[in-house]
Amino acid sequence: MPLGTLDRTPPPFFKQGPSALSKLMVCSALALFLMVADARFKITQPVRSAMATVLFPVQWVAMRPVLAVRTAQDYFTTLNTALRNEEAARRKLVLQSQRANQVEQLALENAQLRKLLQLRERLNTPTQAAEVLYDAADPYTRRVIIDKGMAQGIDAGSPVIDESGVLGQVTRVHPLISEVTLVTDSEQAIPVINTRTGVRGITYGDAGRYGSGGLELRYMAANADVQAGDLLTTSGVDGVYPPGIPVARVTRVERRPDSAFAKIVCNPQALVDGARHVMVLKPLLSQIPPRPAPEDPAPVARKGRK
After folding, report:
1. Which residues contact 213 (CB under 8 A, 6 or more apart)?
2. CA–CA separation, 59 vs 56, rounded Å?
3. Closest CA to 245 of 216, 187, 284
4. Residues of the chain with pLDDT under 50
């Protein structure tokens, strides 16, 4: 055997240091501590923001081929598809024009009635346009990334809509980009109102829980007046979403004798799987006056003792 090929390391009996099991336990405890600390104290938020800012040029360069492919696909759209889209857009424009004429008259009547009843004026919601860059890499959530962040004045909790309805809510803001959690995410809940009956409820994202990948209207009584085709809009009682924005349409209602609640599956109105241009709204809580401080009950108590 040639010289220098022998293994000169000491046998395992003489090796020093912690065992592999000890290293695994230490690393697991450290990982658990960091996860709890991040969830409780948000200690890694500055690190995330810094990394997102540093990686933004790389993401911008990586998105150029995707945008080039999209541009090529748009350019090679067939003439028949373009004509069909134009015809559908014209038909939709006519319907919206008719509704716009009615809305102007109703808005005037509403303003007169509110002034007559001495009610406060409705809050105006500032908006900001944004573009969807890409889907988030987390396979267990339904999120997208938009090209606006802290530098553009985006706030966490801001509602996000497209041309058809509510798309989601901003849940994490970085200096140049933001994460939007879609309405179909399992952790997303929106207070809604049935436009046909005026009954309020709460929709939750099911994320494919019932095979629909849409929304679920929960905690409605089995005998509630809910039918397939009912339109659900934001109720505005949460102080986040302005009232009257379409959220979903009921597609299936199942009433079971063994349950006190009906299982109501809904389809989101917004284009959750293909939205590109969106509007970010300011939360209503930023415009609502603060709640008055509670009165001090101490003087009343002293008067009672006298």
Report:
1. 184, 206, 207
2. 5
3. 284
4. 1, 210-211, 300-306
